[in-house]
Amino acid sequence: MFLKNKVEKSIVIAVMFIGGLLVALPFIWMILSSFKNETEVLAIPPTVFPKEPTFSHYIELFQNLNFDVYLVNTLIIVFFSMIGLLLNTMAGYGFGKFQFKGKETWFMVVLVTMMLPGQVTMIPTYLILNEMGLTNTMAGIILPGLISAFNIFLIRQFMVTIPDDLIEAARLDGAGEFYIFTRLIIPLAKPILAVQVILTFIASWNSFLWPLIIANDQSLYTLSVGLSLLQDENVTNYGLQMAGSALMVIPIIIIFSIFQKYIIEGFNVSGIK
Q1: What is the pLDDT of residues 55-79, one digit of tens each?
Q2: Which one, out of 23, 52, 144, 167, has a CA that is 20 to 30 A from the CA of 38?
Q3: How many structural domains is the chain composed of?
């Protein structure tokens, strides 16, 4: 019986290893190719590891192709998206733990907005921002992404699992609402917040369509928009494209690695299967 379980475990590990390798292979190839010169990238037969590693593609991205500007813009969007996540957390906490007039109605409105594709609200949002004079500005790029109905819903679902007695006990001890939120609710909500941080980071880091629509000035473009321009202008320079793609993917992998231990727990407690 022990031998049978050991064999089954070994088979499962082997299958998982092969599957993981197949999934990771394109990313590994992309990163290695970003350090190859143009000749080696197109060499037949292809080489796995670069014979003469070079950082010239990354240097060209930042020195000649404005990727430093695109990176700063993307980091600004990520920063304000995290502020938006804090606002969404407050809203989810309010829906989950406070009683106020019209609570269920407003929450239904939040749920209804989740059912609308982003393309449906994109034109009205653009027209509103245009009337406010915020087109072709960083504020116009940031504002529509601050509030997310999905984030509010997900956090609200977690908040209802927190016992009301715990919050009432803190209030009886003299704790203020802000203190309860920052010192009690936030630590308890770490699993779901970790999931939200990852989802929010990926969405803001990969922001492409909205910055492309709202901004006419290349100084406001994000990394995703810059990468698309790079593919149009440097069709045959695959090493340069690989470097740009690696620049997009590596931070996401790092963030995922940091928060991965909370992901399964966060999805389980929020009811997502």
Answers
A1: 888 888 888 888 889 999 999 999 9
A2: 23
A3: 1
